[in-house]
Design brief:
The protein has 630 residues and is mainly beta. It contains four helices and 46 strands. The strands form eleven sheets. Strands 13, 15, 16, 17, 19, 24, 25, 26 and 28 form a nine-stranded mixed beta sheet that branches. A seven-stranded antiparallel beta sheet has the order 14-18-27-20-21-22-23, with no helix packed on it. A six-stranded mixed beta sheet has the order 36-35-30-29-39-40. A hairpin with a 5-residue loop joins strand 11 and strand 12. The longest helix has 8 residues.
Length: 630
């Protein structure tokens, strides 16, 4: 947007104007209080060279503070080329974040764990002129996001020199009710609350950081009114360096500056300062290795570093939080919109590796009254997961179910069911049943499923449906919903398939790198030209991997390895099957289909498309035949 500011009685300056190559004629009109034009200035500017693209990004959430495992949507559609040519977009993100492009100018980003991520977009016009823009994204665990929207602070907060507001509040108090959705911190003018005294009395609300390595603290604070004088308010961290307690503070100071300070005992050092006349600021303190960085936000996703301080690599961050201080007796009041701690190492094993892999929400009616609803859980990691406190949220999809004293081994798959005895009657005893829910069930019409860890961090929060584009075969036709990519978007219908097996596949592990579980990994799918999301690309009833193993064509409906005919004349049985010349086949026989009963009849190398092998049996008993391809 164009902004015009008067710099004198008749002088003015305009900003936000983007010029094309060549002659640009701009007309500016002055309006009086009635909106009438009282003056016009025309400015002609000749610009040499083509103008670069102008990048304009819109995001949801707009703050670029994103819960882990949620999706950030960034839209560059408002970007433009002042020269009027079309634009192309190239998106990149660091870490293990996943990018999806529903259209060239829009990107969806999903984050596997908490951390600070950098999104980069390169926008190029038809003249090959580029503009590169970056945005920093704060990704947090729900348990460490504090929006101050509840009536109490919640667990884990420690008050120091401050108390919750009441009728007889003392020297400093805080309130979550004065301004809903914000924490108000009030300092009264009864005494000084300096940071550099032997016994400091300034108010702090602490969070424990013990054991944290690389960590980020961030808050958004504002002044209740125009305030100037001796104060500082914002973020604080306490560090143990070489056995000595060191305090670092960063925030708004005196209504005029953003400042970072270091306090050791009664000695205070100013680390960095920038003029700041705004009534609010978003600030953060980051520890990265042996560096402590003090940053302030210019606009959502755009940050400047005020100061970087070297600390010992072995230094321990003990506590962090929000504070305010007045070196002399002064009344001051501040509002904090939120506080967040981002520590990628703090994510629980359950959030990292526990995944829902199958949902049987509308089982086939067998006519016997069985309740066969189930949800399958898998440990996709390499270590055991303690499930204590992991829970399905009450009503999403059934009455609250909390696991207690259970572990899920690395790679193990188990289920929660509506009725364990009904489940075992159909699926057998070989599948581990972790628990069953009490009231309620999984809706036949679709609903939300929310799974959280013991700390309240979300593992899954998705909503399925029984309508297209969701796989409708799972709606009472016998199939279950099976997830395709456990690190993909669970709210995306294309990340789910209907099970090929009636009744679902509880307890069966989908092969790693084999999204459609057809026995052919994704590299093999590419070589064969088959569909990596369709286990039977040609629809002949045989899995693609089985066809490749058998030597048949997984893209040809008529090319399939199967027994064509088994006939008996007297004591001789003749079996014929589709074959591939040059491949060896073994005909096997069994009297009862038990695993140890199969015996070889003979092995033959095929010379044509159909192979026939006779078997002379001792009597006319009932026998079963199968063919194994070498």
């Amino acid at each position: 947007d164009v902004e015009v500011q008067f710099t004198g009685q008749t002088e003015w300056a305009a900003s936000g104007v983007y010029l094309r190559q060549g002659r640009n004629e701009l007309e500016f009109q002055a309006l009086d209080s009635e909106g009438l034009v009282v003056g016009t200035d025309v400015v002609v500017i000749n610009k040499a060279g083509t103008a670069p693209p102008v990048v304009d990004l819109d995001s949801s959430p707009s703050s670029l503070n994103v819960p882990v495992h949620s999706t950030l949507v960034v839209d560059g559609g408002a970007s433009f080329d002042p020269e009027g040519t079309d634009l192309s977009y190239r998106w990149e993100v660091d870490g293990d974040a996943i990018l999806e492009n529903p259209s060239p100018e829009i990107v969806n980003v999903r984050f596997p764990r908490p951390g600070l991520y950098v999104l980069t977009v390169t926008v190029e016009d038809q003249d090959a002129t580029e503009t590169v823009t970056t945005r920093e994204i704060t990704v947090y665990s729900e348990s460490e996001w504090h929006p101050f929207s509840d009536q109490t602070l919640g667990e884990g907060w420690v008050e120091e020199n401050v108390e919750v507001r009441h009728d007889y509040s003392g020297s400093a108090w805080y309130s979550l009710n004065d301004r809903p959705g914000e924490l108000t911190l009030k300092l009264n003018d009864d005494s000084a609350k300096s940071m550099r005294t032997v016994n400091p009395q300034y108010p702090v609300l602490w969070r424990d950081l013990a054991g944290a390595e690389d960590v980020l603290l961030q808050t958004d604070l504002s002044l209740s009114s125009i305030q100037q004088g001796g104060f500082i308010a914002g973020l604080i961290v306490r560090v143990i360096e070489d056995g000595q307690e060191v305090t670092y503070a960063f925030g708004m100071e005196n209504g005029d500056f953003l400042r970072a300070r270091k306090i050791v005992g009664t000695t205070e050092t100013r680390l960095g300062s920038v003029t700041w006349a705004e009534g609010a600021a978003v600030v953060r303190i980051r520890r990265v290795g042996s560096g402590l960085h003090f940053d302030y936000r210019v606009s959502p996703g755009t940050w400047e570093t005020l100061h970087s301080e070297d600390i010992d690599a072995e230094a321990s961050l003990e506590r962090g939080g929000i504070f305010a201080s007045t070196p002399s007796a002064l009344m001051a009041r501040f509002e904090f919109d939120y506080f967040v701690v981002v520590d990628s190492a703090s994510e629980s094993a359950a959030v990292e590796d526990l995944r829902i892999t199958e949902v049987m929400y509308h089982p086939l009616d067998l006519g016997v009254g069985y309740d066969l609803e189930f949800i399958e859980l898998a440990n996709t990691g390499s270590s055991s997961i303690d499930l204590s406190g992991v829970r399905f949220e009450d009503g999403n999809p059934f009455s609250g179910l909390v696991f207690d004293g259970l572990e899920l081994a690395a790679g193990e798959i188990a289920v929660v069911t509506a009725n364990p005895s009904d489940f075992r009657a159909i699926y057998g005893e070989g599948i581990r049943v972790l628990a069953s829910w009490g009231d309620g069930g999984i809706s036949n019409g679709g609903e939300s499923i929310v799974l959280v860890d013991a700390g309240g961090d979300i593992i899954h929060d998705f909503e399925y449906s029984d309508d297209l584009p969701w796989p409708v075969e799972a709606d009472g036709e016998g199939s279950s919903l099976e997830v395709i990519d456990t690190e993909g978007n669970y709210n995306d219908p294309s990340n789910w398939r209907a099970s090929l097996v009636l009744g679902g596949t509880p307890g069966i592990v989908t092969s790693e790198g084999d999204l459609d579980n057809d026995g052919l990994d994704d590299v093999g799918e590419a070589l064969a030209g088959t569909d990596p999301l369709n286990p039977d690309s040609d629809g002949d009833g045989a899995l693609d991997g089985s066809e490749v193993d058998a030597g048949t064509d997984p893209l040809d409906l008529l090319s399939v390895f199967k027994l064509i005919e088994v006939t008996r004349v007297g004591d001789t049985t003749r079996a014929s099957w589709n074959s591939v010349p040059g491949r060896s086949y073994t005909l096997q026989v069994s009297p009862d289909l038990t695993p140890d009963s199969w015996a070889d009849v003979g092995t033959v190398e095929a010379s044509r498309g159909i192979t026939v092998l006779p078997h002379v049996s001792a009597d006319g008993q009932e026998l079963y035949y199968r063919v194994v391809v070498e």
